[in-house]
Design goal:
alpha/beta, 9 helices, globular, 26% helix, Metallo-beta-lactamase, Chain A, eight-stranded mixed beta sheet
């Protein structure tokens, strides 16, 4: 049973999602309706994913598809085992497929697409769009179902015009808020790692998120979930406070996803 729920917006709920993990230790996001279940990335072992999915009453064998953002370990280290255990179809860009590490192993039902393509899974349409990150052909996604729109952007070092255009009009947003620039500069990371994180091929800062939310807020945006918050270079409280400043005076709800374990089930309305 889907026990943990949070409702935002009107009464007509058409799209749900839950963050299954959101940190450098592993990332996964489940997007689903009454009939369709789509997993975004899987940076977890089969056992760990199964346990986390069980928290929301879902078995890995019931997944309809897995869509991948990029080939970094915290996003894909579990997709090979998942595919071999369940037979679920895996979707990723051609560039991502070519760059997969050997440890992923054979993926029986691998489907490749070009960045920018839309994929249809029953009543959910997933549209990919290119993002700036130090990976091979990385993408993020927007999900649509019966008029509701969920936008997600993670592992993205530059808030581009394309990202802005794709996320515009979303009813809910899942947004990376990876680091605070001051904490990164004063923290334990060596200069070369700091430069990578801060670069256009790295991650989004709290200030990037503020800019994004100021431009994307609109009357039908109900919910913003902050993800991929660094344990060393940010805090959920700081990221949430700065996001709220950008949305001051609006009824938009802001929350930070837990780094480990499942978030509440969020329900998106058109």
């Amino acid at each position: 049973m889907l026990e943990k729920r949070q409702y935002y917006g009107a009464e007509f709920i058409v799209l749900r999602f839950v963050i299954l993990g959101s940190s450098s230790s592993g990332n996964a996001l489940l997007v689903f309706t009454k009939t369709t279940r789509i997993l975004v990335d899987n940076g977890f072992s089969f056992k760990r994913l199964s346990q986390t999915l069980s928290e929301v009453g879902i078995a890995p064998e019931s997944l309809d598809a897995v869509v991948v953002t990029h080939e970094h370990a915290d996003h894909i280290k579990g997709i090979g085992v998942l595919a071999r255990h369940t037979g679920v179809s895996i979707f990723m860009t051609h560039g991502c497929a070519r760059a997969l590490p050997e440890y992923v192993g054979h993926i029986p039902n691998l489907n490749c697409f070009e960045s920018g393509e839309s994929l249809r899974f029953n009543d959910i349409e997933a549209t990919s769009f290119a993002v700036s990150h130090d990976a091979a052909d990385p993408v993020n996604y927007i999900f649509r179902s019966n008029g509701a729109k969920l936008g997600m952007t993670t592992d993205c070092g530059h808030y581009s015009q394309l990202t802005r255009a794709r996320l515009a009009g979303s009813n809910a947003l899942v947004v990376e808020a990876n680091y605070c620039p001051d904490m990164l500069r004063q923290g334990p990371y060596p200069p070369q790692i700091q430069q990578r994180i801060h670069s256009r091929m790295g991650h989004m800062s709290n200030l990037d998120v503020q800019q994004m939310l100021r431009e994307l807020k609109h009357d039908s945006l109900r919910l913003v979930v902050l993800t991929h918050i660094s344990r060393d270079n940010n805090t959920p409280e700081l990221a949430s406070r700065l996001a709220r400043e950008a949305l001051y005076g609006t009824p938009i709800h802001i929350t930070a996803a837990p780094p480990d374990g499942a978030s509440p089930v969020f329900e998106v309305c058109s």
